[in-house]
Amino acid sequence: MQVADPVERAALADQLMWTASQQRSALRGVRAAAIRQALEDGSTTAELARRMRVTEADVAWMADHPVSTLRVVPLKPERAMRIA
Questions:
Q1: DSSP code string of 29-82
Q2: What burial letters (b/e) apply to 53-81, b meaning 16+ CB within 10 Å?
Q3: Range 17-39 burial, b when 16+ CB lie within 10 A, else e
Q4: How many CA atoms are closer than 13 Å to the CA of 64, on its beta-carbon side?
Q5: Which terminal residue of the chain, N or C, has fewer Cβ atoms less than 10 Å from its own Cβ?
Q6: If DSSP codes are grouped into helix, strand and coil, which group holds residue 22?
Q7: Under DSSP, is residue 5 helix (H, G, I), strand (E, B) or coil?
Q8: Could you give the CA distance from residue 38 to residue 21 in angstroms, rounded to a whole number?
Q9: Residue pair 2/12 in contact by the 8 Å Cβ criterion
């Protein structure tokens, strides 16, 4: 699905992040890119905040923090043990 309006795209990505999605980091990047695009296209932070139902400070934070800074360490597969 493609959403042409960057504000609607940001709002949708934000909503989907709060579901049980496995794509939260990707959605966070989509949201940040959409917010930056909307701001470049002339939207104000007040308009974005109103349409996304967040504060203006939230909009500024979302635009500046596109991806998680936490590093995920993959688990090493454990060998199965045979119990006799």
A1: HHHHHHHHHHHHTT--HHHHHHHHTS-HHHHHHHHH--S--PPPPPPPPPPP--
A2: ebeeebbeebbeeeeeeeeeeeeeeeeee
A3: beeeeeeeeebbebbbbbbbbbb
A4: 7
A5: C
A6: coil
A7: coil
A8: 24
A9: no
The identity of residue 35, as a single letter, is I
Has residue 70 got a pLDDT over 60?
Answer: no
Which of 38, 32, 20, 19 lies closest to 69 in space, CA to CA?
32
> How far is it, in rounded angstroms, from Cα 5 to Cα 42?
12
pLDDT digits (tens, 9 = 90+) for 41-66: 999 999 999 988 899 999 988 888 76
